[in-house]
Amino acid sequence: MVKVLHYPSAEADELLQKKSNDDDQVAGQVAEVIDKVRREGTAALFAYTKRFDGADVREDNFAISAEEIERAYGEVDATVLAALRRACENIRKFHEKQMRPSWIEPESDGTMLGQLIRPLDRVGIYVPGGLASYPSSVLMNAIPAQVAGVKSIVMATPPGKDGSINPYTLVAAAESGVTEIYRMGGAQAVAALAFGIGMEKVDKITGPGNIYVTLAKKQVYGTVDIDMLAGPSEILVIADDTASPAYVAADFLSQVEHDVRAAAILVTPSLELATAVQKEIETQMATLSRKDLMAQALRDNGAIIIVKDLEEACHVSNLYAPEHLEVLTAEPFSLLGKLTHAGAIFVGPYSPEPVGDYYAGPNHVLPTGGTARFYSPLNVDTFMKKTSVIAYSRERFYNTAEDIMALAKVEGLDAHANAIAVRLKK
Amino acid sequence: MVKVLHYPSAEADELLQKKSNDDDQVAGQVAEVIDKVRREGTAALFAYTKRFDGADVREDNFAISAEEIERAYGEVDATVLAALRRACENIRKFHEKQMRPSWIEPESDGTMLGQLIRPLDRVGIYVPGGLASYPSSVLMNAIPAQVAGVKSIVMATPPGKDGSINPYTLVAAAESGVTEIYRMGGAQAVAALAFGIGMEKVDKITGPGNIYVTLAKKQVYGTVDIDMLAGPSEILVIADDTASPAYVAADFLSQVEHDVRAAAILVTPSLELATAVQKEIETQMATLSRKDLMAQALRDNGAIIIVKDLEEACHVSNLYAPEHLEVLTAEPFSLLGKLTHAGAIFVGPYSPEPVGDYYAGPNHVLPTGGTARFYSPLNVDTFMKKTSVIAYSRERFYNTAEDIMALAKVEGLDAHANAIAVRLKK
User: Where along the chain is Zn(2+) bound (chains A, B) (predicted)?
Assistant: First the structure.
């Protein structure tokens, strides 16, 4: 059973407070892995791959070959490949709308100021692997990089015990512009990408991973850039009595099948809906394969919060700042402006989370754990950087030299003032 | 004397390799400060302020009062205030051009996809203080936040021994939309901003600081967002024989007066220019106040690199990825497209770095230490975050349901497929 809490209450407040990702013990282990890979190179990297993934990876099979990718195309189902290609097209189309041009604006006295927006040279995308296959994660990381114009898109994904990578993952990489693929995972893969072990170093690492990957990304931050620090996945559903209990229940279950740490919260003014959703969860769960995992996640991190009205529901949602936010109300669009903190908002009855996870176009790499207050979904900007351009004309320079020297002097920097003064001499 | 190196050479390669910011011993001290402030609150914060800044700060004088700001207006020079206001206007105008609208695009079958771009709620800006006064740092951090629409802009700056804050810093804060100012600095200030000690917590911390501030920002990254990790300041000048040796020398000196760790590099095909610049440096340095500091910085981190042509100069500059890049050549604009990694590019003889440091409009908070490969200047995006919007119509949903279920199933997630299937039932 999913617990029912009333808002405001101490229990609801506690639930809405996110826990931090910090884990000193794991952080220490991760630091050791990173340091060893950095110092000892591929020998350490391959030793960790043997230890953590059970696979024999060597210099000669570290990179995925063109033949392996070709073979993967022979192994995937044609219907799935066609669906994957349509998903690629949607994702590409959405991310193309995020592109912005560089600009340099000439002013009447000859001065030009501007901002160049250009792609990063080389990025690393991390895709979880092992037994499971996450072709959608490949698309969601690689396509924005490709749209941005990144030349080298390097994918790291942990191999299975036999050294293999799932064929759907390989096909997804080929379809979305990945230029190099390496058999490696965990903190050791993050270290290899950041310090250029077994390959050239990258400029930025993106993509979700487990706690080891996340803490490794934090530790190499600064040596390279990273997208964000991700934690367990979560959904918050705002619904009124017009919502279908079957839909809400199905969306709860789709969220919690990921992980026992995944969270699902319904915020509603309707006690009747709350009761009906609980019943539907039991009915639907019985038909699904990951029952035990879902039951535990719902018990630990599931909740229904009863509020007095939809206004208060928006307030509660903003406190939680959910990764995924579904709005299943009579007039969902009227709430959009009030929902200030969320990774992605799924509006209306025909936008369940899997629509966005796989297909619609917006990115599924989203801020978790309340970080939607300050992080954004992965997007084209993630793979670009800006450079300012300042070209003062002689006229502008002469007209403003006194101001600039006055400001330099008040900061006590007379060599700054001198750089202006020397240009005034004749 | 500034050393002269030829490119390519082992010495030039070594110089172009940036050193990392990592310092395990300092990182340990910083972690202790953060942990203590987080656990013990303002008691620890004020104790550190006493210890590191020598100032008595208590609950009742922690925040700067309206009266203190009013008093500061009485203490500043009218000419400087007027210059500061013109700088504000330029900075505001430039950053307003970086604003982008949210968009939601309706498609013909009723589906709507979009991206909301909205300001952060509350940000902390760090401004170095103590004896010096950096009003320009206040403007460069606060104005982009103000343009973005951030409601609460909190400034932290370390007090002098007597607890005072420089009046120019206070006036700059008032002119640029800062809403709260607290007397605190160092790692303890970063901890207070991130965990809400003595005030409400912020969502993001920006602004440069010393190594303690930088490492503290790295450690709280994830609890809050940060702008970037900054190191010592640097300039790279590309010049040919049309450049004025006096200008290049002045710009070298303005860069190295900041800090003994500041770096200045001239890249030129002209040996004649190299010799003339060295002479000019000696002459000009004799007239300036921070001679010893500048001489040491030039000896340690100054260099002239001789290249065969301007094409190679661009290549060398891209390897270094400088924070500030000046182009003093006959046709500087023709090189812009080749200069792929730089924080800001100063084009032509009338754009010395101080023009951008104080006045022109583009931001002076720039990526250092080679991080211009992946970081951007502080900008309006720094203070905004995105939220995706997905509103599928019934028609789109029915037309794409099979694709979405196929992709869910290939990832082994049958509860995801169920969230689609349950909506197809009637």
Answer: 255, 258, 357, 416
